[in-house]
């Protein structure tokens, strides 16, 4: 076209970003890469190709990491860890600062390489991914600097294994590497098979930041390489971002190993548009929600819920907007949607869309020949039961449904196995601030979408995983209390004496469910004897059905989580008051059960109730300093229903130490008390009944730990399980929890000093941090 | 989408290809329902320049398009006949003839010339033989606080003097106090006073307090029959901005969707760089479509923009950066 013709057509024309520097970097490595281990590239081994999804061309050959490669990398990381952790925070901060600077100084090279390898539009790599990477390292340079002063008594976990996805290759590296390094860990990272190149470039650049050898190691490869890293016995933590199905496998594989774990998994995030929203802005938000990175975003607003009265108009506007989207060469600076990462992914998306019986609208935009291009798609006319309203597509496909009322919007939003992110559009501040806390998600954006910052926690609930990345809360996932732990010594139950001493009037302790005593479903009980052979009483042997009933009762009591912290505090004080009134009775019971004086234990338990009565209205959230005119609120929300396996030792204090923080933060609980001294907590029923604890807030099921822990951990409607029982219970809980990826907190067979077991670690376990982004402004 | 012949020599007169907006009854429910979320609009505006890029001959063609859309403007107390004649000469020949020849676009002119009433006759004479219309700012420009009957009379005088476009200013106080009925009435009378001349409603967005008010004022002016809505007089402390533009063109889109009538848009003030002009053009193209890249539905109110475009065009032709003195003054 000549200028005259363009003047008439006003077409955009091509605006390609140059790729010669990035290709030259690959060529300098002769197009073949080994792993980055101990501060240098290893010789390439057996390799596979990484391709440019926009044209299918091979970019480079990278090495398929073997178990031996992983082992070498872990050894390098282990070798470097102690020294790295011993460095003053300032020394680590300097390195992280230099890494941030290096990312900025090589921003164009990194952005172009990312786009070549991944297919995302160069605008996104240049304006979003790479600046966020730099920001993440800056922020964590600050955390490294402040760590010693602000988090005393904490230390690094050791060697962290990171397995990251292909959708934000370098950004996910930053999310894993920056906090790990800031906290004094060393890292072995496995980038995604499709997108290994920017990680290798970053590793090479890290030398210029003075990063000591072995602190960061990159092993490339496919899922088998990742599995080798996950299974490696000398790795202390696995941080994984990727699909829910792989996340579940990793949960099961690491169960009982003592490895720390954070999982950031899939989502089907609701995008709620109320009828009073700025509809045009909500539509632009959708472009950023579902057509950002071709929809290959774990937190993509992929499930549109629009209020019925404006739905038709909204869909019309949306379709018009979709017509303006430009799909094309990812290196073109004038396109909106690039290439899907791989033909396999394109095929999956296409298959899912084809199978849907909804009304499909594909954006009428030209698709380039060849390459993995997928038209932006809207599917309307679906119901909650439609597979595409439930399944993650991970592509540029938006599904839509309508709702009638705010309550129905919340119900629909939460009608999902996932809980990563949500978006709410309304001009009504009352509505926005009412809805945001009601949505099951780790992140809620009000009148915005896909806002990210290193200072704000990101992560999910339910099958979207657990753990937060970003902020102080993210750093804590790379730390543990310093000091050595001791193995837990099992406490044996008193065996039935040949001639039990029976005296007094029979007291029958049933189970405590929904505020009432209930007979065990199985109809069996177990006799409990004192150390001296006295029959102390019988306790019910709870079974699966009792757990089911208790969980139902705990759900029915969810109003507890909405009660004010002040009110929960009052109830905890009242519990302390009533326990104190019966202190000698409990102490006597403990003496009978354990053969030792129980006075101190009861007094400590009373103090503990006071501690959490105090915390109930003081565990404040935070307003994060994000680079935005607005607030990012970090809200501490209750996890929901928490299953608690209390320790066998310290039968009162152990149970109270776990129950009190859980209910103080608004959770409801199913407690399985000490299996050797359960009567200590069945006596507690009367304390609960006289202390205004609403029925169902605390449910107590006595019985064998093994079976009950397994049922609780496997229960799909339990949000978290804490297990301080003995033996192999930790493994049971962690592997059963893989079913719905619930949060677990277990002792891994290590002893807890219940006399001092209180404080922030308990409060953190009892809460989920929800980040609510509220940009504001009028003018 | 309607396609049109883009002969640079074709008439610049408005509403030739499209039916003129007749206005409609004031719909206060619609006005009240208008929302504009400031921070979301600002984020969209901030990302716009990064989302679109035109290069090489495409950029040259787009810049030439921008020239065809400029209301070349002088609105100064020291305007004289000579000054206005010089401006009109520049409007007739906005770029050196041999450059236009080389670019394949001989005969290109600006969209219009915009002056105060007293300069209308001078401009009309200076532009004789061209199709370049003269626009007059009117109605007590820039504050719009002279007696209402005089403001209406001023329109008639300017039309009589040969202005084919009248840029009126609205009473900001009506928008600021939510008196949409008064704004509607004022606008409708001004539109009537314009007769065949087409009317651009200057909202003075920098003085309306909020984007929501900008959206509502835009809508009310269109309901009252505005042919164009325009951001600013150029005399407010804040003139055309991308967020304001986004709000106004969304209002235009909504108005067309509901009534079928196309209303034009004119950002004015603050657009001084070729790059800014490209961003505005891509905004119009993406948000409203091709018809809004023509002078009957889109104008730039600008005085120094042309100079920067000339330098960019010479750079395109020669590969060397240009200098201001190589291009004729306006």
From TrEMBL, chain A:
Catalytic residues at 264
Q: What is this protein called?
A: Aldehyde dehydrogenase
Gene Ontology MF terms: oxidoreductase activity, acting on the aldehyde or oxo group of donors, NAD or NADP as acceptor
User: Pfam families this protein is in?
Assistant: Aldedh (PF00171)
Q: Does the keyword Oxidoreductase apply?
A: yes
Could you tell me the keywords of this UniProt record?
Oxidoreductase
Residue span(s) of domain Aldehyde dehydrogenase: 46-480, 527-749
Protein origin, superkingdom: Bacteria
The family this protein is said to belong to: Belongs to the aldehyde dehydrogenase family.
TrEMBL record, chain B:
* Superkingdom of the organism of origin: Bacteria
GO biological-process terms attached to the record: carbohydrate catabolic process; deoxyribonucleotide catabolic process
Q: What is its EC number?
A: 4.1.2.4
Q: What is the main EC category here?
A: lyase
Gene3D superfamilies assigned: Aldolase class I
**Hey, which family's this protein in?**
Belongs to the DeoC/FbaB aldolase family. DeoC type 2 subfamily.
Recorded catalytic reaction(s): these are: 2-deoxy-D-ribose 5-phosphate = D-glyceraldehyde 3-phosphate + acetaldehyde
Name one cellular component (GO) term: cytoplasm
Q: Name one Pfam family in it.
A: DeoC
Q: What is this protein called?
A: Deoxyribose-phosphate aldolase
Q: Which UniProt keywords apply?
A: Lyase, Schiff base
Pathway linked to the protein:
Carbohydrate degradation; 2-deoxy-D-ribose 1-phosphate degradation; D-glyceraldehyde 3-phosphate and acetaldehyde from 2-deoxy-alpha-D-ribose 1-phosphate: step 2/2
- Gene Ontology molecular function: deoxyribose-phosphate aldolase activity
The cross-references to SMART domains, in alphabetical order and at most eight, read: DeoC (SM01133)
């Amino acid at each position: 076209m000549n200028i005259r013709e363009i003047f008439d057509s006003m077409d955009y024309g091509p605006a390609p970003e140059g790729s010669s520097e990035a290709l030259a970097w690959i060529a300098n490595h002769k197009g073949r890469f080994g792993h980055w281990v101990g501060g240098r590239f290893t010789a390439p081994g057996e390799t596979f190709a990484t391709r440019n999804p926009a044209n299918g061309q091979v970019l480079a050959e990278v090495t398929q990491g073997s178990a031996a490669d992983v082992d070498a990398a872990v050894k390098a990381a282990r070798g470097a860890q102690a020294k790295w952790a011993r460095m003053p925070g300032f020394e680590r901060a300097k390195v992280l600062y230099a890494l941030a600077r290096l990312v900025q100084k090589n921003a164009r090279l990194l952005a172009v390489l990312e786009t070549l390898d991944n297919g995302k539009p160069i605008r996104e790599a240049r304006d979003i991914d790479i600046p966020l990477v730099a920001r993440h390292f800056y922020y964590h340079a600050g955390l490294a600097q402040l760590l010693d002063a602000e988090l005393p008594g904490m230390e690094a976990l050791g060697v962290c294994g990171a397995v990251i996805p292909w959708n934000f290759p370098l950004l996910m590296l930053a999310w894993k590497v920056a906090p790990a390094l800031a906290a004094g860990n060393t890292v072995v990272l496995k980038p995604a098979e499709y997108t290994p190149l920017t990680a290798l470039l970053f590793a090479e650049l890290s030398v210029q930041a003075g990063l000591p050898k072995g602190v960061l190691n990159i092993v490339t490869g496919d899922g088998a390489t990742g599995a080798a890293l996950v299974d490696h016995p000398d790795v202390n933590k696995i941080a994984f971002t990727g699909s829910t199905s792989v996340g579940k496998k990793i949960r099961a594989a690491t169960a009982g190993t003592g490895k720390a774990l954070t999982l950031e998994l899939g989502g089907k995030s609701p995008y709620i548009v109320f009828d009073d929203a700025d509809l045009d802005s909500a539509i632009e938000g959708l472009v950023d929600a579902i057509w950002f990175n071709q929809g290959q975003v774990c937190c993509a607003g992929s499930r549109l819920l629009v209020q019925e009265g404006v739905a038709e108009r909204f869909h019309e506007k949306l379709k018009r907007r979709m017509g303006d989207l430009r799909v094309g060469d990812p290196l073109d600076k004038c396109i909106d949607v690039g290439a899907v990462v791989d033909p396999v992914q394109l095929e999956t998306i296409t298959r899912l869309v084809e199978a849907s019986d909804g009304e499909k609208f594909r954006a009428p935009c030209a698709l380039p020949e060849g390459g993995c291009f997928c038209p932006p798609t809207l599917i309307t006319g679906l119901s909650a039961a439609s597979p595409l309203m439930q399944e993650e597509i991970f592509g540029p496909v938006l599904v839509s449904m309508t709702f009638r009322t705010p309550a129905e919007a919340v119900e629909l939003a939460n009608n999902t196995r996932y809980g990563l992110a949500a978006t709410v559009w309304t001009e009504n501040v009352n509505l926005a601030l009412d809805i945001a806390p009601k949505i099951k998600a780790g992140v809620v954006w009000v009148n915005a979408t896909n806002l990210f910052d290193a200072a704000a926690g990101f992560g999910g609930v339910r099958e979207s995983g657990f753990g937060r990345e970003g902020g102080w809360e993210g750093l804590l996932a790379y730390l543990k209390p310093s000091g050595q732990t001791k193995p837990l010594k099992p406490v044996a139950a008193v065996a039935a004496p040949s001639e039990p001493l029976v005296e007094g009037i029979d007291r029958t302790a049933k189970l405590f469910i929904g505020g009432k005593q209930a007979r065990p479903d199985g109809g069996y009980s177990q006799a409990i004897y004192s150390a001296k052979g006295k029959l102390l009483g019988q306790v019910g042997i709870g079974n699966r059905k009792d757990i089911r009933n208790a969980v139902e009762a705990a759900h029915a009591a969810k109003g507890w989580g909405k009660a004010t912290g002040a009110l929960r505090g009052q109830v905890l004080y009242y519990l302390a008051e009533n326990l104190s009134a019966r202190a000698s009775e409990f102490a006597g019971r403990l003496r009978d059960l354990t053969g030792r004086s129980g006075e101190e234990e009861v007094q400590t338990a009373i103090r503990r109730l006071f501690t959490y009565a105090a915390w109930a209205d003081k565990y404040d959230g935070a307003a994060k300093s994000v680079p935005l005119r607005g607030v990012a609120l970090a809200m501490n929300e209750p996890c929901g229903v928490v299953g608690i396996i209390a320790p066998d030792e310290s039968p009162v204090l152990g149970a109270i130490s776990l129950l009190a923080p859980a209910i103080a933060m608004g959770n409801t609980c199913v407690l399985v008390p000490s299996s050797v001294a359960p009567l200590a907590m069945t006596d507690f029923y009367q304390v609960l009944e006289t202390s205004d604890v609403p029925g169902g807030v605390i449910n107590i099921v006595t019985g064998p730990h093994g079976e009950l822990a397994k049922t609780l951990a496997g229960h799909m409607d339990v949000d978290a399980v804490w297990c301080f029982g003995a033996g192999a219970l930790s493994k049971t809980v962690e592997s059963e929890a893989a079913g719905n990826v619930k949060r677990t907190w277990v002792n891994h067979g290590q002893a807890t000093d219940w006399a001092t077991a209180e404080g922030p670690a308990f409060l953190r376990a009892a809460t989920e941090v929800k980040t609510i982004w509220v940009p504001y402004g009028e003018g | 989408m309607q396609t049109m012949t883009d002969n640079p020599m074709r008439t610049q007169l408005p509403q030739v290809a499209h039916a003129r907006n007749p206005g409609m009854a004031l719909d206060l429910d619609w006005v009240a329902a208008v929302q504009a979320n400031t921070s979301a609009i600002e984020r969209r505006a901030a990302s716009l320049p990064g989302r679109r890029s035109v290069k090489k001959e495409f950029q040259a063609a787009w810049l030439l398009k921008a020239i065809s859309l400029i209301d070349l403007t002088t609105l100064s107390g020291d305007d004289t006949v000579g000054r206005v004649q010089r401006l009109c000469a520049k409007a007739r020949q906005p770029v050196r003839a041999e450059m236009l020849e080389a670019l394949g676009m001989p005969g290109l002119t600006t969209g219009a010339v915009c002056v105060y009433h007293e300069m209308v006759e001078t401009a009309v004479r200076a532009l004789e033989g061209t199709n370049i219309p003269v626009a007059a700012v009117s109605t007590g420009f820039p504050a719009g606080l002279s007696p209402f009957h005089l403001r209406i009379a001023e329109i008639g005088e300017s039309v009589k003097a040969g202005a084919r476009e009248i840029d009126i200013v609205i009473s900001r106080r009506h928008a600021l106090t939510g008196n949409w009925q008064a704004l509607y009435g004022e606008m409708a009378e001004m539109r009537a006073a314009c007769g065949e001349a087409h009317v651009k409603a200057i909202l003075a967005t920098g003085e309306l307090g909020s984007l929501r008010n900008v959206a509502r004022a835009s809508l009310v002016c269109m309901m009252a029959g505005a042919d164009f809505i325009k951001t600013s007089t150029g005399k407010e402390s804040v003139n055309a901005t991308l967020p304001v533009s986004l709000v106004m063109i969304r209002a235009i889109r909504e108005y067309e969707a509901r009534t079928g009538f196309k209303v034009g848009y004119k950002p004015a003030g603050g657009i001084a760089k070729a790059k800014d002009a490209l961003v505005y053009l891509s905004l119009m193209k993406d948000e409203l479509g091709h018809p809004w890249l023509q002078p009957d539905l889109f104008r730039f109110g600008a005085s120094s923009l042309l100079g920067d475009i000339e330098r960019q065009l010479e750079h395109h032709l020669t590969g060397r950066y240009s200098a201001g003195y190589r291009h004729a003054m306006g």
